[in-house]
Amino acid sequence: MWFSRKQVAKVPAATGRQPGQITTKRLGDAAELLARDHLVRAGLKLLQANYRTPGRGGGEVDLIMAAPDGTLVFVEVRQRRSSSHGGAGASIGTIKQQRIVFAARHYLMRFASPPPCRFDVVLVQGGIDTPGGTTLEWLRGAFDAD
Prior knowledge:
The chain is an alpha+beta fold.
């Protein structure tokens, strides 16, 4: 696996964390990079990463990609170290889906005629410090915009 402790930057002691501690932010960023690389190798083209709607209380899409057939793919990446509590997939509830759909609709306002769209999820199980490595599961059309 490409994960290595050497790739994790030291966290300054002034933050209250011990130097070298792996944070959930770093694990999430690594998961997004892993997912993006996987999707690009599968033929999708990255259009934008971490798209956020303006203002508070809006939505965010981790990756916006274009499929070879012209479909716009809004991707949510979820990472969990273990499968306890349902794993990565269990953390994408109704409210999270609504926020992703809200951000997608905001993004689509730039198009005179929006292309076909779908919502995919990439589940990353494990992490930098997880024994047994990391697994990735790509769920195409994981949920609808209803």
